[in-house]
Amino acid sequence: MIVQDGRVQGPPLALTMGEPAGIGGEIAAKAWWAVRAAGPAFFLIGDPALVKDAPVALIEVPEQAAAAFPQALPVLPLPLAAPVLPGVLNPANAPAVIASIEQAVAFALAGRAGGVVTNPIQKSVLTAAGFPHPGHTEFLGELAGDGVPPVMMLACPGLRVVPVTVHLSLRAALATLTTDLIVEHGRIVAAALARDFGLARPRLAIAGLNPHAGEAGTMGREDIEVVAPAIEALRASGIEARGPYPPDTLFTPRARATYDCVLGMYHDQVLIPIKTLDMDGGVNVTLGLKIVRTSPDHGTALDIAGRGQADAGSLVAALRMAAEIAETRGKATRP
């Protein structure tokens, strides 16, 4: 157990290495400086050489992280196959990137880590090395799925959003969207908001697919024939779901006060608003896992890697949110 600010907390969080040529090492160091006094405690699984601007304490097991954390960033070493040049991708290091994720998940499943926080990966270089998954979310679903498909949520103070279709072209997203898929996501999101965020009766706002939510069918009938039946099914199962709402007015301050999460029909429909609202403080949360998992709401930033310019705000927010979710889950299981 970890004692911080006089409170007993759970195991430290496991932070994955992410793309070695990106900003993962830099923001890990900056995040440690930001939270080392008050927590949450975490340890990095990766090559210690990636950490340039913080003291490092090499550890052999997660249980050693707590004692080291106030003085140095704990690092569980995972060597790379090839030297790292900032901003230059090397598929030879892809196996270590994948192994970092696998180790973090294994620690969390065993209760030796309170949750997993993932540094950004470069999907193209992992794909070139034979990685079969579109991204983190799908891989984590394979490693730590809880019997339901993993769902990606983006969250910041004042807004939570979930895209029903994710890493697909817009044409493919439209072909993939079904009433059943919306209902499935709505149920997973409602359950996660209760379990992970402590909301007894979550309020879901469902975005329409077409401009003006179809304008009574004059701009497309999908909102009438696909989206509306999903909302009816969610309400019939006891979930407070409303809509479909015109997406262009769904993210105003007044509208945001009326719901706990928005379900959007495709990726950019909900990710553009949240990244516009809080790019530096947004957090990617994977719902439907046995473990807690969060991630910064940005990519590897290869263009500024090694320059000391990276902002660690989103990683700090991801660490804090992971700790909060772990604490909420813990309260639900304690008598």
UniProtKB/TrEMBL annotation:
Its cofactor is Zn(2+); Mg(2+); Co(2+). It is found in: Cytoplasm. Pathway: Cofactor biosynthesis; pyridoxine 5'-phosphate biosynthesis; pyridoxine 5'-phosphate from D-erythrose 4-phosphate: step 4/5. A divalent metal cation binds at H167, H212, H267. It comes from the Bacteria. Keywords: Cobalt, Cytoplasm, Magnesium, Metal-binding, NAD, NADP, Oxidoreductase, Pyridoxine biosynthesis, Zinc. Substrate binds at H136, T137, K275, N284, R293. Binds 1 divalent metal cation per subunit. Can use ions such as Zn(2+), Mg(2+) or Co(2+). PANTHER family: 4-HYDROXYTHREONINE-4-PHOSPHATE DEHYDROGENASE, D-THREONATE 4-PHOSPHATE DEHYDROGENASE. Belongs to the PdxA family. The active site is located at the dimer interface. This is 4-hydroxythreonine-4-phosphate dehydrogenase.
